[in-house]
Amino acid sequence: GGSRTFFVGGNWKCNGTISSVDKLIDALNSASIPQNVEVVIAPTSLHIARAQEKLQNKGIEISAQNAWVKGNGAYTGEISADMLADAGLKWVILGHSERRSLCHESSQVVAEKTVYCLKQGVKVIVCIGETLAQREAGDTSKVVTEQLGEVAKSLGSDASQWKQVVVAYEPVWAIGTGKVATADQAQEVHQTLRSWLSSNTSSEIAQSTRIIYGGSVSAKNCTELASLPDVDGFLVGGASLKPEFADIIKSGS
Ligand code: PEP
After folding, report:
1. What is the ipTM of this complex?
2. Partners and quaternary state (predicted)?
3. Quick one: fold of 6-250?
4. Residue 3's pLDDT band (boundaries 50, 70, 90)?
5. What does the domain layout of the chain look like in residue ranges?
6. Active site residue 61
């Protein structure tokens, strides 16, 4: 993980009941969060208020899983960054592969959302990653740098903006499949992304931006991945709903 503050996100996706949220938050309230690890959990929009009420652990913050591209208005079914900020949320996940594939969100829309959320003071976990077909075609670097490139087009070399952004590299073939990237595969892409940032933004931004890994992270594989020089944390789906999330948090210390 290098010198950057380790970041562990828990993406609860479209899961939960009031009582399962209560149980998860109870468990997190008694989890010990290492000083040098930042922990952010993302319940559904419906469960965020409940999670905020129950959460007592000061080492954990709450994130939304998505936001609309603009502010309040005639956008039925959407939630704006204005609302997230008003509700005291510090973070939002944008461009998750499930939203890119199932809801047809383009990299342009993800970049627009990023700009809007940052403007409202909501920090962004922006997700990128290649499909299996793209990896097999040898296009991984091209795909992930193009996805990150759209965000970079909007943020430019403004270090104060990039400080509010965490990049989540999530190979689509590894999400929810139990097929985790190998240490070599993860390090290679993370390093590619960091050197791309260095060439296309600034070396300061490249050195300070957290690039976290997501895709079937578990208590079993997190220690090796956390030790990689360019892996600055994790975005965890399935395992964030289980007790092992506490072990994944500890792997960053
Ligand atoms: C995710 O949803 O971001 C994710 C990485 O899921 P999982 O850990 O279940 O693969």
Report:
1. 0.98
2. Homodimer.
3. TIM Barrel (3.20.20)
4. confident
5. 6-250
6. no
